[in-house]
Protein: tRNA (guanine(10)-N(2))-dimethyltransferase
Organism: candidate division MSBL1 archaeon SCGC-AAA382F02
Amino acid sequence: MNRLTFLLSGEHPTIPSSEVIASLEAENYEHEIIEELDQVLTLRSPDADPYTLSRRLGMCHWIGEHFCSSRPKDLIESIGNSDLIDFLPQSESIAVRVKRIGEHLLEIDTQDLSKKVADKILEAHDYEVDLENPDNEIFVILIKNKCVLTVLRARIDRTEYQKRKPPKRAAVHPSTMQPNFARALVNLARTPREGTFLDPFCGVGGILLEAGLLGAKVIGVDINSELIEGAEDNLRDAGVSEFDLQVKNAKDLEIESVDAIATDPPYGRQASTGGSELEEIYESTLPTISSSLKLGGYLCISAPSELDLEKIIENHPLKQVEKHKQRVHKSLTRNIYVFRRETN
Protein backbone atom coordinates (compact mmCIF):
# COMPACT_ATOMS: atom_id res chain seq x y z
CA MET A 1 0.00 0.00 0.00
CA ASN A 2 1.52 3.28 -1.08
CA ARG A 3 -0.95 6.15 -1.56
CA LEU A 4 -3.70 6.89 0.96
CA THR A 5 -6.56 9.39 0.88
CA PHE A 6 -8.12 10.60 4.14
CA LEU A 7 -11.62 12.07 4.12
CA LEU A 8 -11.40 14.56 6.99
CA SER A 9 -14.29 15.64 9.20
CA GLY A 10 -14.18 19.34 8.33
CA GLU A 11 -14.81 20.29 11.97
CA HIS A 12 -11.75 22.55 11.93
CA PRO A 13 -9.74 23.98 9.02
CA THR A 14 -6.30 22.72 10.12
CA ILE A 15 -6.48 20.28 13.04
CA PRO A 16 -7.87 17.20 11.18
CA SER A 17 -5.02 17.07 8.65
CA SER A 18 -2.45 17.80 11.36
CA GLU A 19 -3.92 14.99 13.44
CA VAL A 20 -3.36 12.56 10.55
CA ILE A 21 0.28 13.61 10.17
CA ALA A 22 0.86 13.45 13.94
CA SER A 23 -0.69 9.96 14.07
CA LEU A 24 1.60 8.76 11.29
CA GLU A 25 4.56 10.09 13.25
CA ALA A 26 3.31 8.47 16.47
CA GLU A 27 3.15 5.12 14.65
CA ASN A 28 6.59 5.72 13.05
CA TYR A 29 5.16 5.47 9.54
CA GLU A 30 7.15 7.09 6.77
CA HIS A 31 5.04 9.54 4.79
CA GLU A 32 5.08 12.26 2.16
CA ILE A 33 2.15 14.58 1.49
CA ILE A 34 0.99 14.43 -2.14
CA GLU A 35 -1.93 16.85 -1.98
CA GLU A 36 -3.95 18.65 0.68
CA LEU A 37 -7.39 19.95 -0.27
CA ASP A 38 -10.47 20.98 1.69
CA GLN A 39 -11.34 17.89 3.81
CA VAL A 40 -9.17 15.65 1.62
CA LEU A 41 -5.57 14.70 2.40
CA THR A 42 -3.61 12.41 0.08
CA LEU A 43 -0.18 11.11 0.99
CA ARG A 44 2.35 8.45 0.14
CA SER A 45 3.35 5.95 2.82
CA PRO A 46 5.01 2.59 2.18
CA ASP A 47 4.11 1.08 5.55
CA ALA A 48 1.02 2.84 6.98
CA ASP A 49 -1.79 0.52 8.08
CA PRO A 50 -5.23 2.09 7.50
CA TYR A 51 -6.88 -0.06 10.17
CA THR A 52 -4.37 0.98 12.83
CA LEU A 53 -4.81 4.64 11.90
CA SER A 54 -8.60 4.31 11.91
CA ARG A 55 -8.41 3.19 15.54
CA ARG A 56 -6.54 6.39 16.42
CA LEU A 57 -8.14 9.23 14.52
CA GLY A 58 -10.85 11.47 15.96
CA MET A 59 -11.45 14.00 13.17
CA CYS A 60 -11.56 11.80 10.08
CA HIS A 61 -14.37 9.83 8.38
CA TRP A 62 -12.49 7.17 6.44
CA ILE A 63 -9.23 6.15 4.79
CA GLY A 64 -8.97 4.90 1.23
CA GLU A 65 -6.33 3.70 -1.17
CA HIS A 66 -5.73 6.43 -3.74
CA PHE A 67 -5.68 5.58 -7.45
CA CYS A 68 -5.95 8.83 -9.38
CA SER A 69 -6.83 12.52 -9.30
CA SER A 70 -7.98 14.23 -12.46
CA ARG A 71 -10.14 16.92 -13.96
CA PRO A 72 -13.76 15.76 -14.29
CA LYS A 73 -13.59 15.48 -18.08
CA ASP A 74 -10.52 13.23 -17.84
CA LEU A 75 -11.73 10.95 -15.04
CA ILE A 76 -12.92 7.99 -17.12
CA GLU A 77 -9.69 7.96 -19.13
CA SER A 78 -7.66 8.22 -15.91
CA ILE A 79 -9.45 5.18 -14.50
CA GLY A 80 -8.42 3.21 -17.57
CA ASN A 81 -4.81 4.31 -17.13
CA SER A 82 -4.72 3.49 -13.40
CA ASP A 83 -4.13 0.10 -11.80
CA LEU A 84 -7.61 0.09 -10.21
CA ILE A 85 -8.91 -2.83 -12.28
CA ASP A 86 -5.87 -4.97 -11.44
CA PHE A 87 -6.34 -4.10 -7.77
CA LEU A 88 -10.00 -5.15 -7.48
CA PRO A 89 -10.44 -8.91 -6.89
CA GLN A 90 -12.66 -10.29 -9.65
CA SER A 91 -14.53 -12.54 -7.23
CA GLU A 92 -15.74 -9.63 -5.07
CA SER A 93 -18.61 -7.17 -5.39
CA ILE A 94 -18.29 -3.41 -5.85
CA ALA A 95 -20.20 -0.18 -5.30
CA VAL A 96 -19.33 3.23 -6.72
CA ARG A 97 -20.21 6.28 -4.65
CA VAL A 98 -19.66 9.97 -5.41
CA LYS A 99 -18.96 12.36 -2.53
CA ARG A 100 -19.14 16.10 -3.13
CA ILE A 101 -17.27 18.32 -0.66
CA GLY A 102 -19.22 21.47 0.09
CA GLU A 103 -20.32 23.41 -2.99
CA HIS A 104 -17.61 22.14 -5.31
CA LEU A 105 -18.45 21.05 -8.89
CA LEU A 106 -22.19 21.58 -8.52
CA GLU A 107 -22.60 21.19 -12.27
CA ILE A 108 -21.81 17.47 -12.00
CA ASP A 109 -24.71 15.03 -11.62
CA THR A 110 -23.40 12.63 -8.97
CA GLN A 111 -25.68 9.74 -9.96
CA ASP A 112 -24.69 10.06 -13.61
CA LEU A 113 -20.99 10.17 -12.72
CA SER A 114 -21.36 7.14 -10.46
CA LYS A 115 -22.91 5.18 -13.33
CA LYS A 116 -20.19 6.21 -15.80
CA VAL A 117 -17.43 5.14 -13.41
CA ALA A 118 -19.16 1.82 -12.72
CA ASP A 119 -19.65 1.21 -16.45
CA LYS A 120 -15.94 1.82 -17.07
CA ILE A 121 -14.97 -0.68 -14.38
CA LEU A 122 -17.50 -3.24 -15.64
CA GLU A 123 -15.96 -3.03 -19.11
CA ALA A 124 -12.91 -4.82 -17.74
CA HIS A 125 -14.73 -7.44 -15.70
CA ASP A 126 -18.29 -8.40 -14.95
CA TYR A 127 -18.17 -7.55 -11.24
CA GLU A 128 -21.22 -8.05 -9.08
CA VAL A 129 -22.65 -4.66 -8.12
CA ASP A 130 -23.92 -4.53 -4.54
CA LEU A 131 -24.92 -1.10 -3.26
CA GLU A 132 -25.96 -2.35 0.19
CA ASN A 133 -23.03 -4.47 1.35
CA PRO A 134 -20.22 -4.43 -1.22
CA ASP A 135 -16.82 -6.04 -0.74
CA ASN A 136 -15.19 -2.92 -2.22
CA GLU A 137 -16.48 0.66 -2.05
CA ILE A 138 -15.05 2.93 -4.73
CA PHE A 139 -15.34 6.64 -3.96
CA VAL A 140 -15.08 9.58 -6.31
CA ILE A 141 -14.57 12.74 -4.26
CA LEU A 142 -15.51 16.01 -5.96
CA ILE A 143 -13.28 18.75 -4.62
CA LYS A 144 -12.39 22.10 -6.20
CA ASN A 145 -11.79 21.29 -9.88
CA LYS A 146 -10.80 17.67 -9.31
CA CYS A 147 -12.14 14.17 -8.98
CA VAL A 148 -10.22 12.00 -6.51
CA LEU A 149 -10.68 8.24 -6.97
CA THR A 150 -10.07 5.99 -3.98
CA VAL A 151 -11.06 2.55 -2.68
CA LEU A 152 -12.23 2.45 0.93
CA ARG A 153 -9.84 0.67 3.29
CA ALA A 154 -10.98 1.64 6.81
CA ARG A 155 -13.76 3.66 8.42
CA ILE A 156 -13.42 5.61 11.64
CA ASP A 157 -16.18 4.47 13.99
CA ARG A 158 -17.47 7.88 15.03
CA THR A 159 -20.41 6.32 16.86
CA GLU A 160 -17.97 5.35 19.61
CA TYR A 161 -17.20 9.03 20.17
CA GLN A 162 -20.92 9.75 20.34
CA LYS A 163 -21.26 7.13 23.08
CA ARG A 164 -18.57 8.93 25.09
CA LYS A 165 -20.05 12.42 24.87
CA PRO A 166 -19.73 14.20 28.25
CA PRO A 167 -23.42 14.00 29.30
CA LYS A 168 -23.27 10.20 28.98
CA ARG A 169 -20.34 9.79 31.39
CA ALA A 170 -20.37 8.86 35.06
CA ALA A 171 -18.92 12.26 36.05
CA VAL A 172 -19.61 15.47 34.14
CA HIS A 173 -18.03 18.93 34.11
CA PRO A 174 -19.23 21.78 31.86
CA SER A 175 -15.75 22.59 30.52
CA THR A 176 -15.06 19.04 29.29
CA MET A 177 -14.03 18.73 25.62
CA GLN A 178 -15.93 16.63 23.12
CA PRO A 179 -14.28 13.18 22.88
CA ASN A 180 -13.18 13.33 19.24
CA PHE A 181 -11.53 16.71 19.84
CA ALA A 182 -9.83 15.37 22.97
CA ARG A 183 -8.60 12.41 20.89
CA ALA A 184 -7.19 14.83 18.32
CA LEU A 185 -5.16 16.56 21.07
CA VAL A 186 -3.85 13.18 22.24
CA ASN A 187 -2.77 12.46 18.67
CA LEU A 188 -1.26 15.91 18.14
CA ALA A 189 0.96 15.07 21.14
CA ARG A 190 2.20 12.02 19.18
CA THR A 191 1.09 9.73 22.01
CA PRO A 192 2.49 6.22 21.49
CA ARG A 193 0.19 3.29 22.01
CA GLU A 194 1.38 1.66 25.25
CA GLY A 195 3.39 4.81 26.04
CA THR A 196 3.06 7.03 29.11
CA PHE A 197 0.71 10.02 28.89
CA LEU A 198 0.20 12.95 31.26
CA ASP A 199 -2.58 15.50 31.65
CA PRO A 200 -1.55 17.93 34.44
CA PHE A 201 -4.99 19.64 34.45
CA CYS A 202 -7.06 16.52 33.96
CA GLY A 203 -10.40 17.59 35.46
CA VAL A 204 -12.85 14.69 35.15
CA GLY A 205 -10.51 12.95 32.71
CA GLY A 206 -11.87 13.64 29.23
CA ILE A 207 -8.42 13.79 27.60
CA LEU A 208 -7.06 11.00 29.83
CA LEU A 209 -9.92 8.80 28.71
CA GLU A 210 -8.97 9.12 25.02
CA ALA A 211 -5.29 8.44 25.71
CA GLY A 212 -6.19 5.42 27.84
CA LEU A 213 -8.47 3.97 25.16
CA LEU A 214 -5.61 4.38 22.71
CA GLY A 215 -3.58 2.06 24.95
CA ALA A 216 -1.40 4.53 26.85
CA LYS A 217 -0.69 4.36 30.56
CA VAL A 218 -2.23 7.61 31.80
CA ILE A 219 -1.30 9.96 34.63
CA GLY A 220 -3.80 12.62 35.66
CA VAL A 221 -3.20 15.52 38.01
CA ASP A 222 -5.68 18.09 39.28
CA ILE A 223 -5.84 20.42 42.26
CA ASN A 224 -9.50 19.54 42.86
CA SER A 225 -10.07 16.22 44.66
CA GLU A 226 -13.70 15.99 43.51
CA LEU A 227 -12.62 16.23 39.88
CA ILE A 228 -10.03 13.51 40.45
CA GLU A 229 -12.76 11.27 41.88
CA GLY A 230 -14.83 11.98 38.77
CA ALA A 231 -11.87 11.14 36.54
CA GLU A 232 -11.47 7.79 38.27
CA ASP A 233 -15.16 7.01 37.80
CA ASN A 234 -14.99 7.91 34.10
CA LEU A 235 -11.83 5.89 33.45
CA ARG A 236 -13.12 2.80 35.22
CA ASP A 237 -16.50 3.09 33.52
CA ALA A 238 -14.78 3.13 30.10
CA GLY A 239 -12.61 0.12 30.91
CA VAL A 240 -9.31 2.01 31.27
CA SER A 241 -7.34 0.21 33.96
CA GLU A 242 -3.79 1.58 33.81
CA PHE A 243 -3.95 5.02 35.40
CA ASP A 244 -2.38 7.06 38.17
CA LEU A 245 -4.45 9.97 39.51
CA GLN A 246 -3.00 12.59 41.85
CA VAL A 247 -4.56 15.48 43.76
CA LYS A 248 -1.84 18.06 43.29
CA ASN A 249 -1.08 21.50 41.90
CA ALA A 250 0.51 21.17 38.47
CA LYS A 251 3.37 23.45 39.54
CA ASP A 252 4.36 20.78 42.10
CA LEU A 253 4.64 17.89 39.63
CA GLU A 254 7.21 15.23 40.46
CA ILE A 255 6.90 13.15 37.31
CA GLU A 256 9.71 12.38 34.89
CA SER A 257 10.08 11.26 31.29
CA VAL A 258 6.50 10.78 30.08
CA ASP A 259 6.15 10.13 26.35
CA ALA A 260 3.45 12.72 25.68
CA ILE A 261 1.40 15.45 27.35
CA ALA A 262 -1.90 16.95 26.25
CA THR A 263 -3.87 19.32 28.42
CA ASP A 264 -6.56 21.99 28.48
CA PRO A 265 -5.75 24.25 31.46
CA PRO A 266 -8.62 25.99 33.28
CA TYR A 267 -9.15 29.44 31.80
CA GLY A 268 -12.86 29.73 30.96
CA ARG A 269 -15.76 30.83 33.11
CA GLN A 270 -16.81 27.21 33.65
CA ALA A 271 -13.36 26.08 34.76
CA SER A 272 -11.83 26.19 38.20
CA THR A 273 -8.50 28.01 38.40
CA GLY A 274 -7.91 27.43 42.10
CA GLY A 275 -7.75 31.20 42.65
CA SER A 276 -4.82 31.72 40.25
CA GLU A 277 -4.64 34.41 37.61
CA LEU A 278 -4.59 33.18 34.03
CA GLU A 279 -1.02 34.11 33.11
CA GLU A 280 0.28 32.85 36.44
CA ILE A 281 -1.22 29.41 35.78
CA TYR A 282 0.90 28.97 32.66
CA GLU A 283 4.05 30.67 33.97
CA SER A 284 4.09 28.69 37.21
CA THR A 285 3.30 25.27 35.75
CA LEU A 286 5.22 25.17 32.45
CA PRO A 287 8.59 24.54 34.18
CA THR A 288 7.34 21.33 35.82
CA ILE A 289 5.25 20.32 32.80
CA SER A 290 8.17 20.64 30.39
CA SER A 291 10.55 18.85 32.77
CA SER A 292 8.07 15.95 33.00
CA LEU A 293 8.35 15.36 29.25
CA LYS A 294 11.04 13.14 27.81
CA LEU A 295 13.53 14.56 25.32
CA GLY A 296 11.87 14.55 21.89
CA GLY A 297 8.39 14.19 23.39
CA TYR A 298 5.47 16.43 22.47
CA LEU A 299 3.23 18.72 24.51
CA CYS A 300 -0.18 19.74 23.15
CA ILE A 301 -1.68 22.56 25.20
CA SER A 302 -4.54 25.01 24.75
CA ALA A 303 -4.51 28.66 25.76
CA PRO A 304 -6.91 31.59 25.30
CA SER A 305 -5.92 33.72 22.33
CA GLU A 306 -5.24 36.80 24.46
CA LEU A 307 -2.43 34.96 26.25
CA ASP A 308 1.01 35.22 24.61
CA LEU A 309 2.06 31.63 25.28
CA GLU A 310 4.86 31.84 22.71
CA LYS A 311 6.56 34.48 24.86
CA ILE A 312 5.99 32.52 28.07
CA ILE A 313 7.75 29.41 26.73
CA GLU A 314 10.84 31.32 25.53
CA ASN A 315 12.83 30.28 28.60
CA HIS A 316 11.70 26.66 28.52
CA PRO A 317 13.19 23.73 26.56
CA LEU A 318 10.26 23.67 24.16
CA LYS A 319 10.14 24.31 20.41
CA GLN A 320 6.82 25.29 18.83
CA VAL A 321 5.91 23.02 15.92
CA GLU A 322 2.20 23.81 15.42
CA LYS A 323 -0.43 26.39 16.29
CA HIS A 324 -4.16 26.12 15.56
CA LYS A 325 -6.79 28.76 16.25
CA GLN A 326 -10.22 27.65 17.43
CA ARG A 327 -13.34 29.66 18.22
CA VAL A 328 -15.00 28.00 21.22
CA HIS A 329 -17.93 30.41 21.50
CA LYS A 330 -18.57 34.11 20.94
CA SER A 331 -16.60 35.19 24.01
CA LEU A 332 -13.70 32.72 23.80
CA THR A 333 -11.15 31.94 21.10
CA ARG A 334 -8.29 29.65 21.99
CA ASN A 335 -5.07 28.51 20.41
CA ILE A 336 -3.99 24.89 20.33
CA TYR A 337 -0.20 24.69 20.51
CA VAL A 338 2.10 21.74 19.93
CA PHE A 339 5.62 21.95 21.37
CA ARG A 340 8.50 19.50 21.18
CA ARG A 341 11.00 19.14 23.99
CA GLU A 342 14.38 19.88 22.46
CA THR A 343 16.89 20.06 25.33
CA ASN A 344 17.37 18.89 28.90
About this structure: DSSP finds eleven helices and 14 strands in the chain.
